[in-house]
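Fold this complex.
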Amino acid sequence: MKKNYLFTPGPTMVPQEVLLAEATPLIHHRTAAFSAIMEEAARGLKMLFGTEQDVYMITGSGTAAMEAAVANVCSPGDKVLFAGGGKFAERWGELAHAFRCNVVEIPVEWGKSLTVEQVRAALKAHPDARALYITQSETSTGALTDVQAVAALTRKTNVLLGVDSITGIGVHPFRFDEWGVDIAVSGSQKGCMTPPGLSFIAVSPRTWKAVEACTSPRYYLDLTAMKKSWSKTTTPFTAAISLIRGLRTALKMIQEEGLDQVHARHARLAGAVRAAVKALGLRLVAEHPVNGVTAVWGPEGMDTEKLIKLLASKYGVTIAEGQDDLKGKVFRIGHMGYVGEADMLVAIGSLERALKELGHRFDFGAGVRAAMTALGDTENGEGS
Amino acid sequence: MKKNYLFTPGPTMVPQEVLLAEATPLIHHRTAAFSAIMEEAARGLKMLFGTEQDVYMITGSGTAAMEAAVANVCSPGDKVLFAGGGKFAERWGELAHAFRCNVVEIPVEWGKSLTVEQVRAALKAHPDARALYITQSETSTGALTDVQAVAALTRKTNVLLGVDSITGIGVHPFRFDEWGVDIAVSGSQKGCMTPPGLSFIAVSPRTWKAVEACTSPRYYLDLTAMKKSWSKTTTPFTAAISLIRGLRTALKMIQEEGLDQVHARHARLAGAVRAAVKALGLRLVAEHPVNGVTAVWGPEGMDTEKLIKLLASKYGVTIAEGQDDLKGKVFRIGHMGYVGEADMLVAIGSLERALKELGHRFDFGAGVRAAMTALGDTENGEGS
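Structure:
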């Protein structure tokens, strides 16, 4: 027998309650019964996004919502700013290129976070930009961006702020309205504890003016069609009925735990992993790490792909590899969504066993001990 | 207790085996284990599409695949032909408009089918068209288009043939390669007996040249990215893991029944419904009806929305209303996917009970009798 554990930064482990909600017999999507389900899910999403605006559900992966955030706002030739710094940050640039925008990158070294100074300088140099796209939680490096600080600058300008919070929502606090974010996107298979296939988008009142003026072609991802349909509590095209049912159940679980508690749990789990990594003599990739995933440089000379394969094959623990330039050098442990404290012992203990087998020299057990100490400290209100 | 029956033309009833396959714990999408699942599902789709070409799975509803079929092929200003005749047929025109094409409609009256003569004339008048988009099974009217006959004409020209077979695949025979179709799309929640959220697209070798030359912006639905990823048996963006697992199970069930038998079953069910409708003194909307859904004119003076509501509330039978201009005048019974002969007795018997309650005068029981007779006849090889 081998039990399997999924510590990847999406998909994440899904509660059996959610999976079984998805396994109930299909109902039609143009019915009052399904509208009621969608309405409940949408209320949960509004809580997670921190907004009174509608949050639209798209049948598609997170990238579909990112495309909606660009294609409905930016016209060909529009100047578009984006912050680099990771595989997903760069996706904003690729999208803006695909839609023939005049793309300006704010360069960020992988592992570093966009600074307020960089944003201030970019807004000063490009006051004519249509939008600035940033990434709250960069899944490839585990680096966190201070969305509130960036929004404090953009909201005073005409530059709209689009935020990828695909691995941020449900992990880190997000206050769409209060911070003054203009467009935010997320996905189902991360903090929302649901299988992949759904993505979400919130749009600020001032963004709608840009949407009306936008000449980029779009149909499936047309925000105006979503808004029109949502006024009748439905979607322009057939909704992913079973996934939305699962989502509703997952969001109810989040609500029952309490959103503040959910955020605090993620901070606790991340703290435990960081303490363990340090105790094992390893280094984080990110200078300012996120709470949903921890990217770690492998031990000197060790191919991290080997480590990841061993963890999966021998210990049933799936973690993620480094992406693009980080492939073979980095491993990433996901701890977002349906993850508890005990799960961290599984992840870190198994990591120690595999590291030892591959020849890394360290105080065996030090990782688990450090994690448990960190968890105990935060429980007692002593940790950070 | 009220048991519920879903006789809508998508979503359709989903076998419990499929729902439970979706309810298994999540695995990561970039693993050999998931690639093996996708490969098996893709083999099943190739059988349904009748092609040796790859069939790509898109996380999105059927319209996402339709957009991919336009946005990857047609550039702004390209002349694009489409056949009208229903809500979904018109979607091709809307998509081509959205992508700034020079759109030419081949007008088809709702309920009628596109004729070979119309296609011949359109190809003669517009030999410079990039593509012709048609609808095999028009879900809003229940009208069937002879795709083979249309393809026999387009394949001799430079005009690419795109086919919406969203409610066709798995119901009617489809021979992508043999007929010479260039692009075909379908969805999960129809003949494929899976919840909504996935769509599929097949692309002919000669279409790839158009894809390379196409200047329309696209990213999430970019076919070239799908092709590149599929060469490594993966998807460009996170796949809808649970839905693809369900799909694999559903396609295995179709394979076990035998595709010819599946098509024959749909013909049998459709024949039974048509016989019943006639026996109740009602008329079909479609001149050449499809086998997956039957659209019926309501009795003179009866608001079909009332009928549909009564069927759902009192009898637990969900059928679909008329769309756009047909709203209130038409009802549609879906009989595609996981539907057996006995299900037709439920649908037609309940329809009779509701019709009687609303004052329609007819020989009570005649519908069920006609359906059973038709089923018996075809079983004995006497029917059509």
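Chain B has a mean pLDDT of 97.
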